[in-house]
Amino acid sequence: MNIAYWAAIVVGLAYGLLANREPSIPRAMVKTAPLVLLATAAWLASAPWLLVLAFALSAAGDLALAFRGEKFFLAGLSAFLAAHLAYARLFFLGQDPVWSSGLIFFAWAVIIFAIALGVFRRLRPRLGAMKWPVAAYTSVIAAMAVAALARGPDPVLLAGVALFMASDIALAFETFPPAEGGKPMKWRGWFIWYAYFIGQALIGAAYLLR
Fold first, then answer.
1. Phi and psi (nearest 5°) for 21?
2. Total domains in the fold of the chain
3. Contact call for residues 45 and 2 (beta carbons, < 8 A)
4. Distances in Å between the alpha carbon of 19 and those of 32, 145, 187?
5. Domain coverage including residue 164
6. Where are the alpha helices (DSSP H) in the chain?
């Protein structure tokens, strides 16, 4: 039994109650703890080093995004971009060559990139100088999702990746609201957190609980 994994679940679920609180150092520490515990769980289980790295980078991203300001946002974006790259490489290494050359895989890959493109086009008028960083991030997370799909129809892993993407989409619309006079899209912090954390936990479960 991997105690660190289940400790991450408890702390992660509990943090959702604090997700809408004002930024503070104690809140940031609690927010960072679940992914630190998932990284520890992966390390203790001798999981692939890329999984440990992805969890650790995600923890760094959580710490940065626990505070407000452009420098914290860019630091968080960079950390999660690197985490998605680590995930993409990890998933790609485990691809099923028969499944990933099939028509069903190709169709879903097109759908994933179409969703990513649609989200970016919706956000683009609001991004300003952040247009290219967000474009790069959107492309990488779509590639990560396709790499996960290339492993085969694993419902636990794919559910985790889908929730991770949903959280990122929600956070993007929260971070870049419409221009003044538009109708902003409201996303509560608890939804963004739970979609993100449960997604990460399911990705961990796909490797650690089997």
1. -75, 160
2. 1
3. yes
4. 12, 26, 12
5. 3-208
6. 3-15, 25-44, 49-65, 70-93, 103-127, 131-149, 155-175, 189-208
Residues 6 or more apart whose CB falls under 8 angstroms from that of 58 comprise 35, 38, 79, 80, 83, 200
**10-residue block means of pLDDT along the chain (210 residues)?**
90 86 86 96 96 98 90 92 96 91 94 95 88 92 96 94 94 79 60 94 93
pTM: 0.91
Could you tell me the two tokens for 161?
Answer: 């990746």
Which pair of tokens denotes residue 124?
């683009």
Rounded Cα gap, residues 88 and 79, in angstroms: 14
Which residue do the tokens 């990705």 mark?
203
Tokens of 36: 């630190």
